[in-house]
UniProtKB/TrEMBL annotation:
The lineage of its organism: Eukaryota, Metazoa, Chordata, Craniata, Vertebrata. This is UDP-N-acetylglucosamine transferase subunit ALG13-like protein.
Length: 145
């Protein structure tokens, strides 16, 4: 909860006014009034979050390949939060590769707030949409295939 509050403060300091959360099966579904810094909307699942991504100024996501591809192809700045407790951490490998190619920024849960405070989105390069072969090559590089 402390990370959530400090991260929302960091978002507010950067000029973000609204935070939309997809929390899936998580044990916590934050109430709209639980975040005094930004306007909060939280939901478990939608058939598609494409419209949410389209309206976003920044996407914060886990580093799953599908989530990364959807956000990058929508042309949105992407910050992925890698679960550093996974054993075979393909998310970290994918995030590192896409970060090295300047397509996204990444952090861990413990560094999220500081990353939000200091991130420079101007360094990000567009990911060319409609090129699944390119993304497959990223996956191959990232996973060492």
């Amino acid at each position: 909860a402390v990370t959530f509050i400090s991260s929302s403060q960091a978002l507010k300091a950067r000029g973000y006014e609204r935070l939309v959360l997809q929390v899936g099966r998580g044990s916590l579904l934050p109430a709209a009034d639980s975040c005094p810094h930004v306007r909060l909307e939280a939901f478990r699942y939608k058939d598609s979050i494409a419209e949410d991504i389209k309206q976003a100024d920044l996407v914060i996501s886990h580093a799953g390949a599908g989530s990364c591809l959807e956000s990058l192809c929508a042309g949105k700045p992407l910050l992925v939060v890698v679960n550093d407790k996974l054993m075979d951490n393909h998310q970290l490998e994918l995030a590192r590769q896409l970060h090295m190619d300047s397509h996204l920024l990444y952090c861990t849960c413990s560094t999220l707030t500081e990353t939000l405070r200091t991130m420079d989105l101007s360094v990000l390069q567009p990911f060319l949409p409609g090129q699944p072969k390119l993304f497959a090559n990223f996956l191959d590089k990232a996973l060492g295939v």
